[in-house]
Amino acid sequence: MDGAPAAKKQRVENGISQHSHPGTSYHEDFCDKDGSTTIMFCVKEEVGGLAKALKIFEENNVNLLQIESRPSKKDPSEFEFFVACDNTKGGLKEAIHALKEKTNGVTILKRSRTTSEGSDGINSVPWFPQKISDLDRFANQILSYGSELDSDHPGFTDKVYRARRKEFADIAFNYKHGQQIPPVEYTEEEIKTWGKIFGELTKLYKTHACREFNHIFPLLVDNCGYREDNIPQLQDVSNFLKDCTGFTLRPVAGLLSSRDFLAGLAFRVFHSTQYIRHHSRPMYTPEPDVCHELLGHVPLFSTPAFAQFSQEIGLASLGAPDEYIQKLATCYWFTVEFGLCKQQGQIKAYGAGLLSSFGELQYALSDKPEVRAFEPIKTAEQEYPITEYQPTYFLSDSFEDAKEKMSAFAATIPRPFAVRYNPYTQSVEVIDKKDQISSLVHNVRGELGIIEDALRKLNG
Fold first, then answer.
1. Among 297, 302, 317, 396, the one annotated catalytic
2. 229-286 confidence digits (pLDDT tens)
3. Quick one: which of 134, 169, 310 has its CA closest to 251?
4. Is the separation of the CB atoms in 300 and 213 below 8 Å?
5. Residue 208 annotated to the active site
6. Cβ(395)–Cβ(374) under 8 Å?
7. Is 279 among the residues known to form the active site?
8. Global pTM value
9. Fewest CB atoms within 10 A around its CB: which of 77, 142, 270, 329?
10. Residues 21, 208, 292, 312: which is the catalytic one?
11. Chain-wide mean pLDDT for the chain?
């Protein structure tokens, strides 16, 4: 759901964005709540190989909840197995040690943070999705649901609004990857609220937003129904994004953890709300709503360079230690949410938190705040207030420049592997073997051959 990662809620009052932590739509990471632990291991392709491994779980009274297998990308003579185990009973620790002796590459994929190798010598990394459908596994592990509003929320005492919020939450809760996002028939009151915000912000975009934003916005008007009297449907917007950059929208029922939200970006999936703020205070919201998502975030996800930059942050988060998740969350906060860029000698806004708040959008481009160059190592350590305009913003020369800096920063994250997104299979490939690198080099050579052929024809 919108915003920079971490445990934070967004408030916009009289144009002021207020937040309760570095990431407008997340809560802190948590331990497994479903009582399961996922283990990955490799078995040689031989008769009875898997049976021997599964016998270990039986001997230690460990109940298996799910088993998946696939040919190993690291060694053609092996198969990889992903086994979800009940960790509430039986001797799981003993089973893991026995597996290490009889199989290869034993790795524990955990929802909670741990080091890359535990004191017992077994590799252990935070669990992360490797297929786009894996996002279903955490999409509903949220902080609050439907009508559960804080007492200071404008709609707290409005039973109709609370029931309406639950309708939106139910749509997201029942959504699975591959489905169409159900359309919503917004009420006249909801459309009026959207219209007030739309009208105020569109007055500023030509002079305050970056050129990429202003190039895309008219296309959203033509293709997705962006109008003052109409709230666009998420599926229509998602289809548009898919055609532009491969990004898609996924409805979310509440607040995700930083780790989970960033993991979605690795697959070019943006978790988005569908509900709108309470009509009594159209310039205030205690959490990101559809106005923030569609007006602040969507336009730039339609831009290839920005989409790539956002995905770089997501890929860097996969399997990263908690302290680096926080660093990435802060970088996200000062770029995707509150980023500035330089264009033709002028400073323009590209952060969604600015582009969806007419008050802070004007303030950020004034001479009042401090503006520093975006350097991930330094930006990741920057603190910021949560109840007022930001005193400091970070400036990038371009999205491409920001992407290259994030890639360099990602290389410093301590994890025993590299990751690569495969757009053909919509999966993440874990790279930790030399033969995998040889395969990648072969693919790169193929791409270079296409470029060389194109250059010859252009010069011919």
1. 297
2. 999 999 999 999 999 999 999 999 877 888 999 999 999 999 999 999 999 988 887 7
3. 169
4. yes
5. no
6. yes
7. no
8. 0.78
9. 77
10. 292
11. 84
Record the tokens describing residue 26, joined without a space: 């997340």
* Residue type at position 440: L
What is the predicted pLDDT for the residue at 200? 95
Whether 26 has a pLDDT exceeding 70, the answer reads no
Annotated catalytic residue: which of 212, 293, 337, 360?
337
- The two tokens of residue 290 are 């559809």
For the chain, give the number of residues.
460
Question: Which pair of structure tokens corresponds to residue 331?
Answer: 């970088």
What is the token pair recorded at 110?
């955990």
Q: Is 356 a catalytic residue?
A: yes
